[in-house]
Every structure is written in structure tokens, then in C-alpha cells.
Amino acid sequence: MALPPYASTVERIWFWAFRVLCGLVLLFLIIPVLVIVPLSFSSGSFLTYPLPGFSMRWYEEIFSAGPWLDALKNSLIVAPLATLLAMTFGTLAAVGLNRADFPGKGLIIALLISPMVVPLVIVAVGMYFFFARVGLLNSYAGLVLAHTVLGVPFVVITVNATLQGFDFNQIRAGASLGANPMRVFFTVVLPQILPGVVSGGLFAFATSFDEVVVALFIASPTERTLPIQMFSGIRENISPAIAAMATILILISTLLLLTMEMLRRRSERLKGEG
């Protein structure tokens, strides 16, 4: 928003002071992240400034056979599966909850989004005892289901927001033309709510890929994910390999944010055209 030409002196001072303040806050948030990137190219064996030299050895270490590559593979197995399940269950829940009002609807919504509100340690302890009883402890299936539970609230919220402008008469129109509920959903509903579904899926993926507390309770050393490996590395042996992996995660997070912004703009454009 540009400063109007008729603005007073006080308004001009506040205009520039506000922007300087926002810039300082942005730097305060970004600089700690950017400091990690040069450390990943250090030739030394410790996280120190100034850098003793430039080297790609830490990237070679994390992508060579060993604990880092195994942890990355585990995360790339668990996160996509948990994301797909979260997108499926979250979308169905959001559509079902938006179609009709019924007693207990608010309670169901509260239960669905509770993993976002309840401290992760409490969620992890509850999952630990439950999974131990049903035999899902120390397994990929248990870890995927645990991360699915953590991802569903994001999908429910984003899809629910997308459905606020959806006309459910379209579903009745499709049914009156002879289409079964499955066909109506995939040809009428899903194309219109897809930006919300994908946005929620991106949040679910980021949550699973970055989650460490629940994974510490559920996973065994065989299912050690990347966040657990980084947590263990920081606690036991701080090396620039952690900075190298963190740099890669920063790039992934940036790509996810750009994708979400593109989807948001596409959703707004579709609403404007509608």
C-alpha cells in the first residue's frame, strides 16, 4: 500500500517506521536460518565461524550409505503415506461435516483438530500405550498411522475453509442426473475443493517430515526418521552434517511454501471467476 500524497508528517513517520520494524522482525526470524547454510559447506569437523574452508564433504556424507541416508529413506516412506491417508480421511470428514447439521457435530470437529491443540508429549504417550496393546509399536504402520492422526486436522481445516463457498445443490443436481455418489464426488466436488485438499496435504507432509516427539515414542531404531537422526546428532555429536541436512530441509520448506502460495492464488482466482 503506497503512502498517499496528502498524508501528514505523523502518518509519514509511522509509514516508514512500521516498515522498518517489519523488516527488523523479518531479519530476526530469517538470519538464524540463513546462518545454517554456510556452515553446511564447512571443511571443518565442527559448527564454527569463521569457516576454515569450503567443502562438500558433509553433503557426500548424508547421501552416502549410512544412518543419514537410511533416516532420509524412512522419512520419504512415512511422510507420503501419512499424507495420502490424512488427505483422504480429512477430506471425507470435512465434506461430511459440512453437508448437514447434527447433534455432536461440534464435538466431532473438536476431536478431529485436537492433535493440533493437545501437547505432542501427551499425544505421544497415549499413542504409545494404545499401539503397544494392538501391536503397532516399533513398526512402519504404527508410525504412518500416528503421523496420519497429526496430519488430519490440517486437511480438515483447509478443506472446511474451501467448502464455505461450495454450493451443495450441485451434489443434488448430479444425483438427479443419475450419477452415483462416488462419481459426483470425483467429478463435481473434488475439482472445486482440490486447492484446499492439496494445501492441507502439504501441511500434513511438512508435519510428518518434521515430527520428532511422537516418532521417538513409536519408532524403533529400524524406523528412525530424519528428525530423530538430527535430534540424536545434536545431542551426541554436533557436526556440519546436521547443517547440510538442515539446508536441504530449508529448500524443501521453501518449495512447499511457494506451492501453497500458488494454490492460494489459484483458489482466489477461481472464486473470483465463480
TrEMBL record:
Q: Would you name any one GO CC term? A: plasma membrane
Where exactly are the transmembrane stretches of this chain? 20-41, 76-95, 107-131, 143-163, 184-206, 238-259
Grouped into one coarse class, the protein's main location is membrane
- The answer on whether this UniProt entry bears the keyword Transmembrane reads yes
GO BP field: transmembrane transport
Instruction: Give residue ranges for domain ABC transmembrane type-1.
Output: 72-260
Determine the domain of life of the protein's source.
Bacteria
Q: Which UniProt keywords apply?
A: Cell inner membrane, Cell membrane, Membrane, Transmembrane, Transmembrane helix, Transport
- One Pfam entry for this protein is BPD_transp_1
Bilayer topology annotation:
Multi-pass membrane protein
UniProt xrefs under InterPro entries: MetI-like (IPR000515), MetI-like_sf (IPR035906)
Q: Where in the cell is it found?
A: Cell inner membrane; Cell membrane
Sequence similarity: Belongs to the binding-protein-dependent transport system permease family.
Protein's name according to its UniProt entry: Polyamine ABC transporter permease
Could you tell me which species this protein originates from? Halomonas aestuarii
